[in-house]
Amino acid sequence: MEKPGLLRESAFPIVVVILVVVIFWYAAALLMNHGAALDSLKLKGIETTPLQGWLLSLALERPLLPAPHQIAVEMWNTTAQLSVTSKRSLVYHAWVTLSATLVGFGLGTALGVLLAIGIVHNRAMDKSLMPWIIASQTIPILAVAPMLIVVLNAVGISGLLPKALISTYLSFFPVVVGMVKGLRSPETIQFDLMHTYFASSSQIFWKLRWPASVPFLFASLKVAVAIALIGAIVGELPTGAVAGLGARLLSGSYYGQTIQIWSALFMAAFLAGGLVLIVGLVEKLVARTMGAKPERMAA
Amino acid sequence: MTITPESVVSARDLGLTFETNDGPVNALTGVNLDVNKGDFVSFIGPSGCGKTTFLRVIADLEKPTSGSITVNGTTPEDARKNRSYGYVFQAAALYPWRTIEKNIALPLEIMGHSAAEQKARIERTLDLVNLTGFGKKFPWQLSGGMQQRASIARALAFDADLLLMDEPFGALDEIVRDHLNEQLLKLWDRTNKTICFVTHSIPEAVYLSTKIVVMSPRPGRVTDIIESTLPKERPLDIRESPEFLEIASRVREGLRAGHSYDE
Ligand SMILES: Nc1ncnc2c1ncn2[C@@H]1O[C@H](COP(=O)(O)OP(=O)(O)OP(=O)(O)O)[C@@H](O)[C@H]1O
Ligand SMILES: [Mg+2]
Question: Which pTM value belongs to this model?
Fold first, then answer.
């Protein structure tokens, strides 16, 4: 009963923002590509009206900034118009990146949760591990990724796994930080209660710490899944991978195929948005079974 | 020290000092108290006099810094490990992700009761605190008073012989409070449990107790222990009897004396 109103309310600002962005985008595309359009017309020795020059700004093959409709057409052509097994299909490349993302995200989540459990239950781990975990994220991944991939290639590990490992490396961090906080989130009185029952550590974990940490887990997972996608794309850049969104970005930039670059970027953005959305939906489902107040679920 | 088998709680010169950033806080000093099996002991006294702290010492949630205490003839720690008491906290402390019946089932799960046993006990204790029909609700769907009753049900569910109750009826209206007082007395009479009960209400303390412990703050200590002369059978209108009023006025005097000690 409340939902349609809510949807309309939240859809309106989004539509307005998209409209504004599109208008500015067209303006920018016109201005940035006009020079190139005039040059190409001059090269062909064609006499044109100014209007034709402006129109060509939005239809160049390799524009400085492609117009939105050019990207839309390219995306349509490389997704709906091609078989998904085709090497030119954006769906194929997206899947290559997505599979590495999902493997890395899964590994990163598992690693993050396990580390958090260790840190929460063991003082020595807390003191010794946490600084290293934080230090790990100060290393610029763009610098490490090529080395890592080259080293792994040298020992015979190639394909999906090296990329997934970079995703793991990036995505375990928000999970550790969130889960350490979450596993420590129960109040003293809730722990006292367990104490009066003489509950074992594993009972305290499964019946108190874990359920209390679930909201923290999902907050972390939303960050982790988006960052895992970035990790997979970064993992595709350095070795000149032949497939994946990162490879599309790279080959696009070699040949000045700006439209291809932008469609790969948009595909990546859609993937990230979709993944975060899915995590959000699962979160809502879990929250409902765990009796969260509806107000909190809507937030 | 000789401990009669009857003794449930025995404190000798018990003291507890919290070390805080603003210096030490004497929560309890020189507490001598014997609680015997089947006693209903009320603790009454102004805020901050150490009532909760004393209950927490019995429950092994706090370690005394001086003196000694035994619970069921053993250390509080062993008593806790034997799961010999049920504790009702000053706040309900229900787990928000569990329904009311799942909250009541929590100690039963931990102590390894069978599913059928759990179900029977949940039903019985829900009925005891007048929450039948609310088992499937989550805590936020209940009023504060109902949540507190659910927490009482949880403490009763596993049938410990000793009940430690920290202002369990503080959040309830007068009528519900009367009803639960009656229920608690019946339960106590029927089961021969030992109950340590913290309250701020003089009539409640007198109505329920066989022994009333009057405490006063700074430092937290016991100022008077009043043995009730009321019969075990107590209809609600016993509260108008001269005997009842007599005990109540003794308690009030004890509290006043403690208060004048303040400031
Ligand atoms: N964990 C703690 N650390 C430091 N001081 C504490 C701690 N717990 C209690 N105290 C102090 O000990 C004293 C006794 O506290 P306690 O909670 O036992 O009082 P109370 O009699 O239960 O009061 P109330 O009626 O308000 O519940 C207070 O001065 C309080 O500030
Ligand atoms: Mg208290």
Answer: 0.87
